[in-house]
Specification:
With 278 residues, the protein is mainly α. It has two domains: 37 residues; 193 residues, MetI-like fold (Orthogonal Bundle), CATH 1.10.3720.10. 76% of the residues lie in helices and 0% in strands.
């Protein structure tokens, strides 16, 4: 019974969350139908849906009876572009988080290391990854390397700062209790400090992935010839506003899926954490 009630509550929350998007789409369609908006500037939701569907599916075969390619030539670009963007996000995030996590643990646990490195971190952290675009192209040329470099920067600092905060926020009572029980330095770190810092680390992971996805779109508009960002920029050049909006919706859907996945992973890994069982 309890599981059924929880499932019903989740579906009810999903339904409530869909109310506002449905109202926005209905008003948008009404404005397009009544001619309140220039269809070239703001196409109707139906036109965007048709373009999104064409953007999603693979190319249709040549139809000689129809006298040429079918009116809605289905390109299949969305799958290829989404795969390219996700590849860059995953590679860049793994590298950035892989560098930030051990550095954050050391800086959080060792005050002397923190004192040495924190000024440099605080100097570089406010610089947005987009500011590195000219240097990334100069250093790495065009293609995946500069995009991945920018994503590494975007993912590095959220994971680093949250890891440092997690280690430094460990309750002193836990540390004193572990020392009184004879825990060595390594045991103290592995069995007390690291588990206590996990909620902060996972929060940094969530923020880092979101930042990485933002950076990949911007980098693809500058240095890459495929991906969702590149396709939106291409659509702008040809004034395909329906394809621009279709690309934006695709980005939102993928970002939502990533956030839901990361949230569920966090909840699974933090079952032991206070409040997660409720």
């Amino acid at each position: 019974m309890a599981e059924n009630a929880m499932a019903a509550s989740k579906w009810r929350d999903v339904g409530v969350g869909l109310v506002v998007p449905a109202l926005v789409i209905a008003l948008w369609q009404l404005a397009a139908t009544l001619g309140w908006a220039n269809p070239q500037m703001l196409p109707s939701p139906l036109a965007v849906a048709q373009r999104w569907w064409a953007y999603l599916l693979p190319l249709q075969p040549y139809d000689s009876a129809a006298g040429g390619w079918l009116a809605w030539a289905l390109s299949g670009e969305l799958i290829v572009d989404a795969a390219g963007s996700l590849y860059r996000v995953i590679v860049g995030f793994v590298i950035g988080a892989g560098l930030a996590l051990p550095l954050g643990l050391v800086m959080g646990a060792r005050p002397r290391v923190y004192a040495w490195l924190n000024p440099m971190v605080q100097l570089l952290r406010p610089i947005p990854p987009i500011a590195y675009i000219p240097l990334s192209i100069l250093w790495f040329g065009l293609g995946n390397p500069p995009a991945i470099f920018l994503i590494v920067l975007g993912a590095f600092f959220p994971v680093l700062m949250n890891t440092i905060a997690g280690v430094r926020q460990v309750d002193g009572i836990y540390l004193r209790a572990a020392r009184n029980l004879g825990a060595s330095g390594a045991t103290l770190f592995v069995r007390v400090i690291l588990p206590a810092a996990v909620p902060y680390i996972l929060s940094g992971v969530r923020i880092g992935i979101g930042t990485a996805f933002i950076v990949v779109i911007v980098s693809e508009m500058i240095a890459v010839n495929n991906g969702l960002g590149f396709r939106i920029l291409e659509a702008r050049e040809y004034f395909w506003s329906d394809k621009i909006i279709a690309g934006m919706i695709s980005i939102g859907l993928i970002g939502l899926a990533i956030d839901v996945g990361v949230t569920r992973l966090n909840n699974h890994l933090l079952r032991w954490h206070r409040g997660m069982d409720n």
